[in-house]
């Protein structure tokens, strides 16, 4: 095929997903919002596989820090949470040169703040304590019972602004909700709500209210100030400010709890707080963070919607203590989490991460704490540093107050001068200095994460709609043909952002043999099922491969559907986008027909060899009445089949059919219509196939030339009311370049087209009217496909898509051509300056076995079991 197309690119050969340039992955991911980045692997699996080895961000199961919206300067104040904005920071990429922070927005966070979380799920609340679960990735929302509905006689009133009052007129402010089980758990969700002043309640899936846990009878004020709670092995544990641990059996939460004296820690010398978790041995673990609150000022007290003032001090160290499971109630000091584990604590349910060997950003045997007591987004306590008395010295200016301090404190190691062996590394991200939301409290662990590497160190991201058009173009041009068609459904935001979309729904494309930019290759067989799909509006070409095309050739089509056949005339329908295949009846159901033993598509009928010419697909399986197809063979065999038929129904030829054959066929107004090679129209009633057809003389010749040959196509007007005939004029050429085609129409052999005329039937008067334009906003496409009209945008389409032109596929010497209807007959001359014909050559193989045919994608379904 010629490579001199006016629109096709020399770079048309499609590159597989696996060969996508790594730097291209980075460019795109740099412009993703976090939810898109999280969902990307499921939507675009091929790309995710490509990026897998290029340090992907937000990997499945990896830790990320959820904060208020991004702010590079760190000086913006978050006055409200109405926008539902948040920042998501990849902890595993905190020190690299790549991007680690993503700006997102969630409908389920508008007017709400998070107060806990586990895996993909957050616990969120509004000002009136209407608590619900939100899956940040999918957007699923599950309401929890209201707090004024409590069990076992406890009466609460919701006062607003995150407070409730009890029957003894105590005010209780929400501190956190520990989400012990998510809705994905086989037992459903389980949550524990912690309020100030000794109020603790739990709820589980199926509960219509919260169950208030009974406090110990002889409890002091400190005993009733719970700092954390967790469920382990059917028991609910809570720890108070002094480190005393209480436990309730989940089946009897309204009885008094059992008490376990906490480990010996220095609570008088230091100011501190406690977290609860499980150890790596699945035992109860108490984590003590201690420090100094003298002269400590914390602006979070005034800016955070939800904040526990007990967690406001200068932390100096940490100790971990495991409770002996043997029943001795003895505590064991934990100094080692193992060579490959890191523990993550905060408002989230605690979790461990397996650290990859050689990781530079995640460190094993460390405890990561979100929203540190001293006000950092997160801190890292290293258990490998030995044990000494004293304090950890903080770098000057390490608190995040300006741009420089953010850079200095980000994963910067602080020297341990004295004291506890725990070296803390401060992690600060580009978040608002005064955040109304919970800021960096939960260290969110996502379970559906993966993305691509990048080389951009800017934390502020650009929404999908602002994605650079050239980036869209670079990626779309490297997709395979089927992925391009399905892309708008798979990545709708990106499709909307693209300035130059490819293969849009209901726009014309040409399907050909595989893409070959040079046009020299020869297609010797169709075993691989490869094809080229060429966008008429943009001139872009895409390579594709379909299992349903292996060892098959197409002989017709409509919209997304192709009619394909093997060498034994086994005909079926193939949806090129979804891969769905629908078998059609065998041609051997026609009485007297048998399939010939030849390498081409041939049958024997009435003592003659007849080649399959085309199958006009008049209705696809998507039609309410199902499939309807008309098959044309050389000489005089025409047959049709419809949904529910077990075979093909041959139609009776007219008595005057001698020396003629059928050039094209269509179904119109319930009748099968066929045009003969002489231009006459045959009409059959589909309910009376034994009767001879009604004959109608075709349109008169417009161009009188004894050397002219006419070729005919049938169509229906754009309003669906009139029958149309396309008359293609040309000359006989003894040399035909399509010698290797499996299927080729006899009327097109050795035919060189030069001009066209369009005629419309006045059914009432049985006369033909010459059509010289299509209304100024339409183009007509004919060939082996079912004919269709395309609406051309106002002001004209692209160079290769113009209104009032007729587009014909599969011509000798070129893939397709467009003919101008508006020119006067005298302007068609060889030396005319007016464009009467435009040849369309695409980068397909020079000698191909497949015929070029128009293809019109109309839908973009996505199936999980098929490649995107």
UniProtKB/TrEMBL annotation:
It holds the Pfam family Beta-prop_KIB1-4. It comes from the Eukaryota. InterPro entries: F-box_BR-signaling, KIB1-4_b-propeller. Residues 108-382, 538-820 form the KIB1-4 beta-propeller domain. PANTHER family: F-BOX DOMAIN CONTAINING PROTEIN, OS07G0183000 PROTEIN-RELATED. This is KIB1-4 beta-propeller domain-containing protein.
